[in-house]
Specification:
Keywords: Acyltransferase, Transferase
CATH architecture: 3-Layer(aba) Sandwich
Bound molecules: coenzyme A
Family: Belongs to the acetyltransferase family. GNAT subfamily.
Number of strands: 9
Number of helices: 6
Order of helices and strands: HEEHHHEEEHEHEEE
Radius of gyration: 17 Å
InterPro entries: Acyl_CoA_acyltransferase, GNAT_dom, NAT9-like
Helix content: 25-40%
CATH topology: Aminopeptidase
CATH class: Alpha Beta
GO molecular function: N-acetyltransferase activity
Strand content: 25-35%
Distance between the termini: 10 Å
Number of domains: 1
Structural class: alpha+beta
Protein name: N-acetyltransferase domain-containing protein
Length: 213
Amino acid sequence: MEVSGAAPAAAAAVEAESGSGGKGSWYVLGERAVLVPYLREHVPRYHEWMQDPALLEATASEPLSLAQEFDVHRSWTLDPLKHTFIVLDKELIEGRFSPGNRHTEAMVGDVNIYMNDPDDMQLAEIEIMIAEHKSRGKGIGQEAILLMMAFAVEKYGIHTFRAKISESNTASLKLFRKLGFKDASYSAVFKEVTLEAPADALPLRFPLTIGDW
Ligand SMILES: CC(C)(COP(=O)(O)OP(=O)(O)OC[C@H]1O[C@@H](n2cnc3c(N)ncnc32)[C@H](O)[C@@H]1OP(=O)(O)O)[C@@H](O)C(=O)NCCC(=O)NCCS
């Protein structure tokens, strides 16, 4: 959705409340997963996930209060350099998937991109989290990353992806390397590996099944 007219700030605020932050609001359909916009209604469950010390460590996050989580949600939706989706496990969707229905019953994680390299705005850092243990090991994390990267190529013109992963996070390292990411650098201070991949070297599938939320 475009933000235009005499009061763009007000329009952006309205869009932020509706969950799109003025960046457009889409869903992306996969075989096992559906990516949907991160809405305010998703925040309480997201906040519950982020009480788990293992998830905080794996995602290099700090514990937040629920009020802080709502603030972070708002800042993410307003930030034009970030795009976040909630990952739905299709097997957990009650009834049929319907755009506009937040489907909190099926939310299992999130995937996001962040265009945070000032030297290259077509480079995006990508993060994935499948928080619900019952939905791990089903190929959902892998599919969610691939859907998000294809979306980022199509909607943001991204040509390179980067992932920063703790050296102890063997599952995530294996996942990104399996997709074709190569080690680019290592930080001894943060004990973290930076991996990168050009978009055209990744097994991205087009056309995407994508729709307006
Ligand atoms: C890492 C994570 C995203 C994997 O999600 P998932 O949906 O369970 O993974 P998938 O079922 O799609 O597995 C895809 C590949 O990842 C790797 N993988 C996933 N879980 C693994 C595990 N426990 N041990 C080793 N490799 C693993 C494998 O290569 C697997 O492919 P294979 O089954 O053909 O061997 C999930 O465990 C998670 O969110 N962990 C906590 C948060 C985190 O570490 N985020 C990454 C920060 S960028």
